[in-house]
């Protein structure tokens, strides 16, 4: 990137330094990062904000300082701090809440955030900023670049560390930044919920009750599901092992909306059901377990929090002799249970995983994920079967990504681009990845027009 580096000075509210345990969401993504390193750049993500009006570099930096001061997540780093440095608010917690290897989160009151200033294409800048892993212990969890048009800032590029924010947290941050830019210097927004507040709630009585309810679901289901979904070697590993295939299918989109309308379901539930059914067809399992990612923003104080709230829930579906319509009927309540189980303490889940593995004599983990990353469900809508069938001519499959390591074996993502499958080819070969996506399209189109 060609440009210069400026700095934003920030001074947020609170004590000079506060150290606390990780929240459940931070712990979940930290475990994924550790299992994926050194390819953990996989979890970085970014956004580009078109700057409203005409703003100088100084004016945008003032707004960025206010943003970082407002949201403690952006001035929080990981720390190996000992328990003796922790705030009094957390001294009632167990001495080692997550084991000795678990870091803590450290909130800084003051600091300097480096800012790249450039004239390059914003999307290219985003890709460059996201291309390297974060230094979780020594770098602020937010990278920023200002893209100039003349002497004014046209775009702000932000790349987020997943320990600081998830997709909805990033959306809240962009909304706040835009408001700060519109209001101009000196603008202030109402107080916001903070990750440290969340950590305090999760450690308290209400949090523990919620965690115990979720843990009961995991414990019950881990006793009956197959040990893992994709256990057999594919025999055709690629180099590097992890690849992503992206299916762009207007026919699938129309079919999903039509099925949702016919069965009074959400499009997300229709896709989760179809993904799970096909996992069973590819693996031979009659009972399938998939880990859907839940936003976990159902409490009023977490709706707009800038934090990583998303975690895996546990969705199980029994396929024996069921039609797709029958599977959809069962999937509704099963999905509700799964999303409720996503708001869990990873320490409980790790304990249950170890216990189930010991009881069954082999490791238990689905390694099979489903992540609906669309910000809104497009909604049910009955579609003309002829229109769905005609749209099949516009289907395409591309391969946008590959890397050496991933914390999972099979991950389906739903985005506005389409349906992608990221998989470890040691367990699902590249030809089978493409076959899976095309059969997913066929299953849904057949269900919609049949």
UniProtKB/TrEMBL annotation:
Domain of life: Bacteria
Domain Condensation, first and last residues per copy: 85-305
Pfam families for this protein: Condensation (PF00668)
Protein name: Condensation domain-containing protein
